[in-house]
Amino acid sequence: MKFWKILFMNILIFSSLITISSISWFSMWMGLEINMMAVIPLFSSYKNMYSSESALKYFIIQTLASIILLLSLIMLLMNLKFNFESNIFLLSLNSALFTKIGAAPFHFWFPEIIEGLNWTSSLILLTWQKIAPMVMIMYSSKTMLFTLIVVLTSMITGSILSLNQLSIRKILAYSSINHIGWMLACIYYNYTFWMTYFLIYMLISINLIFLFKKLNVYYFNQLHSILNNKTLKFSFMMNFLSLGGMPPLIGFLPKWIVIQSSMENSFFIPAIMIFITLIMLYTYIRLIFNSLTIKTLEFKTFDYTPKILIYFNLINLNFIVLAPLIWFLN
Question: Coiled-coil ranges per the record (predicted)?
Fold first, then answer.
């Protein structure tokens, strides 16, 4: 790895740590700005004009969200008599943070930007770039009704818009929007639930993106190259099913936790969550069958199986061991 990439990766990590550990809103905002300036060079590539275009779009969107965030913070601090539960500036602050993570209905930029990135940059955008804004949402999510609307909108948008996609990166982008809804629901109930959900989501995302990067595939019709490799085929299917929350895989654990917590208040919202999850799971199953059961002679087969995939799959299957943690989390 080149020196400048190591440098910007370190800045990226430490800027997120600044936001997470700060007790001042302006320190958090400063950490977000350093984070944005560090990730832009990692997204850009002189070899790929689409990566540079995505980096520029990301810069513009994040800058606009940061301006709204900063103005909201200034107005909140100037208005000493504001009602913290219903103040319009608090809504604009939350809207800016939802825009930064790509939650619906502020998701318009997310799929288009990730379509131009390589797999390493996509992994950063799907996982690490969510941490700092999510922590800020934990401190600012006092408008429960607005947060609940964003939760349901993100779940519905991610599941519906993923139905007609053939690009793997766009599928993962809409899947991420769906999972953002689940993560915000975790924040709504318990911060520990969010940490558990995010770690499991990041584990599955790393596994999938490592697989796609090794195969050098970006569209589902390119996945025919793994038809003759049973281990890769099994890994692909199992990780997508785990991402969709199919029991008894590890991806079912955080959804189980959220549903169990939400059922203590009402049955209506958990029922909607389960129905939306079934739509997302249908998308994964349909694409798995369409991509891995129709043979073609256009693509070369991929016979090599990295050992690390086997280890990740063993972790994915260890849900039965992790299931008792749900009682400790409560």
Answer: none
Task: For residue 56, give both structure tokens.
Answer: 């520029």
Amino acid at 98: F
- Residue 167 tokens read as 């690009």
C-beta contacts of 259-265 below 8 A and 24+ residues apart: 260/326, 260/330, 261/189, 261/190, 261/193, 261/330, 262/185, 262/189
Give dist(CA 217, CA 136) in Å, integer.
35
**Could you read off the pLDDT of 147-170 as tens digits, one per residue?**
889 999 999 999 999 988 889 999
Instruction: Render pLDDT for 46-63 as a digit per residue (tens, 0 to 9).
Output: 777 889 999 999 999 999
CA distance 226 to 231: 9
Domain with 248 in it: 3-329
Total count of domains within the chain: 1
Greatest C-alpha distance within the chain: 70
Integer Cα distance of 236 and 245 in angstroms: 14
Whether this prediction's pTM lies above 0.85 is answered by: yes
DSSP states along 267-325: SHHHHHHHHHHHHHHHHHHHHHHHHHSS--SSS-------HHHHHHHHHHTTHHHHTTH
